[in-house]
Amino acid sequence: MTDQAPTSQQFQGAHVKARTTKNPGCKVHLEVEVDPEAVQAGYVKALHHVKKEVSIPGFRKGKVPDDVVIKNFAREIDREWRDLTARTAFHEALELIKCKPLSQNAVNKVVTKKISKEGAEIHFDYESEPEIPSLDYSSMKCRLEAPKQVTEADIEFELKRQRVRHATYEDVTDRPVASGDYITLDLDVTDNPAHNVFSGRLFCVDKDEMPKWAYELILGCAVNESREGKAKAESFMKGQKEGENSEEGENSPEVTCRITPTAIKKANLPPLDDEFAKKYGVANLDELKNRIREVLERDAKASVQEAARSLLAHELVERYPIDLPESLLNREAQMRFNHAKEWHTQKEGALPQGGELENRIRWATYEIARQFLTTMYLMNQIAEKQKFNVSNEEFVQEVTFETTQVPPEQRVVFAKMDPEEARNRLFMRIVMRKALDWILQEVDKS
């Protein structure tokens, strides 16, 4: 939540005066004065509403004289009058102040200070939609860089990966990890919010194929022995070779990573020839290399795009802070905290209640929620203007992406979430990505 001091304003309409006090967390206190003419008109409407519903012997329903209705149903008329006056006053005041409630249930308190034929004064407390600032694209620092050129070494590296997929393996059980081995590896980030990066992924223990910190840490490690070190987990997640760093990776902070080899294997790789190429539906090795080049070039472009999105989102959150609705922010933070807590329970055991670790995870998930919602609101204003379309194919890809590639702390769908809400959140993330890409294009033009 931003450090925002309360602000007050006054508004004058045809029949109402409105005074607003806006407090942090999008909490609005609204005081409305209704003039005598509008209050009296409200009383007449209330009388007619009651009159249509009541029955008195000797009169047809709806035909009872006004004075008889007033005499016998004064309490009902008064209740209807108060409700009708409050609803009308709130509606007309909102038209004046242009500060919409967050939802239909956002009004949490209504107090009628006075109501008579001389006028009325009614106070409302509600949670509003946030105020969204306009974005200045010309001042953005983030730029979309050209993707890295694919080299022959990159193609050879990928060919080896494909051979590994078709290799046969022999278990090694009589020694610790050595250079040249193939290992299955678990990688966890232990800093808060702690999370598993991957489990059981196959790696070649080679200084040219693993990040330096991991290669040095894993040598001499026994099966199921865990070791910890400071590192950038992104290098592992993206399969980067030693010395290969994206702009996003360079700017990302170091975290404490725990690596655990779960098996040591000796690999028997298949020969690299035309017969091997045919496994991929091409005639020969040259065609396979060409296909690999196309895939690597496409992936390099996608990687640069995703890195730019991430940096842009960070810049936007820092430059355009938003006072978020307190209930919305708290709900988002709580969902993310519950998810982190469940993950910790599965991996490490139950999280001690009220301790330092729980407090740090709670703060971290709150901060992630704040950044997520801020980006969402900023991007929604772009999406509404540009009217982005989302295809069924894009949505299916997003479901796969969420369930197989997104780190736990960055997910938007959580356990026990209503299916419709889950669908809306995945749809929203696609739109947010499109909006970020649109801004990057605009920044390029400036």
Structure notes:
By secondary structure, the protein is of the alpha+beta class. The protein has three domains: 7-127, Trigger factor ribosome-binding domain (Alpha-Beta Plaits); 168-268, Roll (Chitinase A, domain 3); 299-445, Trigger factor, domain 2 (Orthogonal Bundle), CATH 1.10.3120. The protein contains 13 helices and ten strands. The strands form two sheets. A five-stranded antiparallel β-sheet has the order 1-2-3-5-4, with helices on one face. Strands 6, 7, 8, 9 and 10 form a five-stranded antiparallel β-sheet that branches. The protein is elongated. The chain starts with 6 loop residues before the first strand and ends with a helix.
Descriptive tags:
5-stranded antiparallel β-sheet, Chitinase A, domain 3, 10 strands, Trigger factor, domain 2, 3 domains, 446 residues, Alpha-Beta Plaits
Topology:
Blueprint: E1 7-12, E2 16-23, E3 27-34, H1 36-53, H2 66-72, H3 74-97, E4 107-116, E5 119-127, H4 152-165, E6 168-171, E7 182-189, E8 195-204, H5 212-218, E9 227-231, H6 233-237, H7 247-251, E10 255-268, H8 274-278, H9 285-319, H10 326-348, H11 356-386, H12 392-404, H13 419-445
Antiparallel strand pairs: 1-2, 2-3, 3-5, 4-5, 6-10, 7-8, 7-10, 9-10
